[in-house]
Amino acid sequence: MQSQVEAGREGGVISSAVAARRAQVSIFKKGRPAEDVIRGYMLACGILSIFTTIGIVIILGNESLLFFTSGELDFIEFFTSIQWQPRIGEFGILPLVTATLMTTVIAMLVAIPLGLGSAIYLAEYAPLRIRNAFKPILEILAGIPTVVYGYFALTVMTPLLRALLGDNTVQIYNTASAGLVMGLMILPTISSMSEDALSAVPRALREASYGLGATKFETVTKVVLPAALSGVLAAFIIGISRAVGETMIVAMAAGAGPNFTFNPFEGAETMTGHIARISKGDLSYDSIDYNSLFAIGLTLFVMTLALNLLSQWVSRRFREVYQ
Amino acid sequence: MSANNTPSNYMPSGEAFKRNLAGRNRRGGIWGTFYYLSLVVAIIALIALFLSIINQAFGYVVEADTISPTELVEGGDLSTLDSPALAAILLENVPGRLIVYTRDTLSRVSEDVFTRTPLREAVAGSTLPAGTEDLDITDITAEQRAEILGANLGADVLVDYVTEDVVEANVERAWSLFESIPAAVTQLFGQPNPLLVEAIEEYPDGDFYFRSWLTLDFITSRGSDEPTVAGIRIALLGTIWVIIITLGFAFPVGVGAAIYLQEYATDTPLNRLIETNIRNLAGVPSIIYGLLGLAIFARALSDITGGRTILSAGLTLGLLILPVIIINSQEALRAVPSSIREASYGVGATKWQTIWNQVLPAAMPGILTGTILASSRALGETAPLIVVGASTTIFRNPLSIIDKFTVLPIQIFDWTSRPQAEFRAVAAAAIIVLIVLLLLLNTTAIILRQRFRKSLQG
């Protein structure tokens, strides 16, 4: 390459340009196998993520298929029966689903108003100094392992509920306690995502609203919040998705045993709680119990995937674009 | 000019408006207070969480021994005895446990075949009594078992066993910190300590003292069925092993994928699919990763991973944090100004030379911060490891990556679900260790970020 360039330089302006182009061409023609290998490795890393998804789908699907073709149950029974008792061959996922729904709804009753409220306060009301001080605190709250929240539910929230409402009303393991603590766990996620959405609303909108004589509260609820709606809704849906998939809090505080009930003060086992409890014991491969876990897992996966896709769709569909 | 333009009509006024305005402001004030209170509730929750843990981890206890150490040795100090003497105490008091001790400490083979393997293999490397090499542990006499223990184990290990199973110091009752403080204050003012009075009444032989469940011994001793001597050494080692595997797998793969997506990928359907896919993987519940790890690493690849082992757990967590590492690294790479790349190309560097020498060093602080935050998530994960098959009762250090494992969060989960109230205190102490570890990691991430940022600017 060097010699070609030098050769071009000797032979005047035009030939030097030609030679330079030739030299350039030769650079690109020269294969760089090492670079291709590196590029291939990095492409493989990216593709691995697709294989993870395919792996999840195939494994959940395959084991669930084994479960449904085992002859112990039929497909309709799985979604309609209100009993989950593997011992006597009853596999109805409804009690697990209702327990999941109950803990999720209770968690959202805590997390949505408090999360959105604190987000509005931080984004619209709080002086900068307070905002800078409190954001890290919310981040700490978000970083605490869920097993610690489970411990908190069992040692603080449950005794508190029992003291307030009476030992007869509230069982030792109950969905209310698990749901409330789960709400505290999800609060920072909703708060920080909503706060980002609110802060992204341009200042001009607020000022226009004040200019029309609106109060601060009216500006926030009638101008800023609708403008940030896509982000706030996406935050809610992500929160719901996390509540559905949360395991440790419900495994520790919600109860061990499927129970078809809508009483939040009774124990009931969620889908995740059931998977955790059954796999904790000595689980033998190819047993109906083993396969049933994957059928529950598939239901859970479909639910959370739907929620995540919904969240992405909402944030695209309702996004307001400002110049 | 019409009368409409006169100032009196230009601004709204009048009684009705003023009343209305007062109402609007009041409503705004009420809601403003609500917004403020929701933040306060979040802070109170955080404080309550920390206080409840500290509350359980310290406090007065009454402890009583089943057999007093003074009955076993003159002066009651077990550490003055040598190994054979301690083994003799075990032989005398708990002959039935000797097999278990041998298995937990000296075994070189797996648990299920230990009692059927000749001692020569089962406890390879240990000194054996003459003539027992070809027998298995169930064939020899209790005296010979004690002899093996006495000859091969250090006094410190045997002291642990004697303390735990012979002396058996049981915590009869434990008070929380908030119950203990008022009692201690009463004592300070010269009044009798009410808890001490209660303790003497109920447990006259007991030993009443203020106990911190979080001690150096707690960190260095192994797990146990006795709350007083239970420790987290094995869980801590397990956690370290698992995190090393997790990062060893997820860091190179995650950064590689991020570089591909950020530096090489053009807008093709495949690349778009990879992008969307990674975002969706980040939202999959962790327990699903547990099922994936159970089916693939623990079962299908059990020849390589050895089943439910540290390796399986590490790889499972690796898959779990992979999307987080990719997304964070992509963000860090995106933040590198394109002028750096252009300048590098301008002096004739190839694509990879540009990435390796210019882009990666500039993006490294961001990538490292993201990786540390991802590993702090892996550190606290419990659910997937339960599914992959963490054991809760392991009493010896993990020896290799294809060994059974337990980790700190699993140990906390196990202790919390036990019925004895003392284990709540032990779990609280373990939670403090876990949270301190997490805070250390996060602080490191922040310091790293700032140091790199400075060096980039300088």
* Strand order of the biggest β-sheet of chain A: 1-2
Beta strands of chain A, count: 2
Please indicate the percent range of residues of chain A in DSSP E strands (runs of 2 or more).
under 5%
Beta strands of chain B, count? 3
Instruction: Identify the CATH homologous superfamily of the largest domain in chain B.
Output: MetI-like
The SSE string of chain A, one letter per element, is HHHHEEHHHHHHHHHH
By CATH, the topology of the largest domain in chain A is: MetI-like fold
Structural class of chain A: mainly alpha
The CATH architecture of the largest domain in chain B: Orthogonal Bundle
Rounded to the nearest angstrom, the distance between the terminal CA atoms of chain A is 50 Å
Distinct helical segment count of chain A: 14
Helix/strand/pairing category of chain B: mainly alpha
What's the CATH superfamily of the largest domain in chain A, by name?
A: MetI-like
The coarse silhouette of chain A is: globular
Summed up, the helix count of chain B is 21
Radius of gyration of chain B: 31 Å
Mean pLDDT metric of chain A = 85
Q: What is the residue-averaged pLDDT of chain B?
A: 85
Largest sheet of chain A: 2 strands, antiparallel
- SSE ordering of chain B: HHEHHHHHHEHHEHHHHHHHHHHH
Task: Report what the structure shows.
The complex is a heterodimer of chains A (323) and B (458). Chain A is mainly alpha-helical. Chain A has 2 domains: 1-30, no CATH class; 84-317, Orthogonal Bundle (MetI-like fold), CATH 1.10.3720. Chain A has helices at residues 2-10, 12-29, 33-68, 75-80, 94-125, 128-143, 146-165, 175-199, 203-211, 216-227, 229-245, 248-253, 271-280, 288-317; strands at 84-85, 90-91. Chain A has a two-stranded antiparallel sheet. In chain A, a hairpin with a 4-residue loop joins strand 1 and strand 2 (90-91). In chain A, helix 11 (229-245) packs antiparallel against helix 14. The two termini of chain A are 50 Å apart. In chain A, 44% of the residues are buried. The model of chain A is unreliable at 1-13 (pLDDT under 50). By secondary structure, chain B is mainly α. Chain B folds into 2 domains: 69-211, no CATH class; 233-457, MetI-like fold. Chain B contains 21 helices and 3 strands. Chain B has a 3-stranded antiparallel β-sheet with strand order 2-1-3. In chain B, helix 17 (338-346) runs antiparallel to helix 18 and helix 18 (351-380) runs antiparallel to helix 21. The longest helix of chain B is centred in the N-terminal third of the chain and has 43 residues, at 15-57. Chain B starts with 6 loop residues before the first helix and ends with a helix.
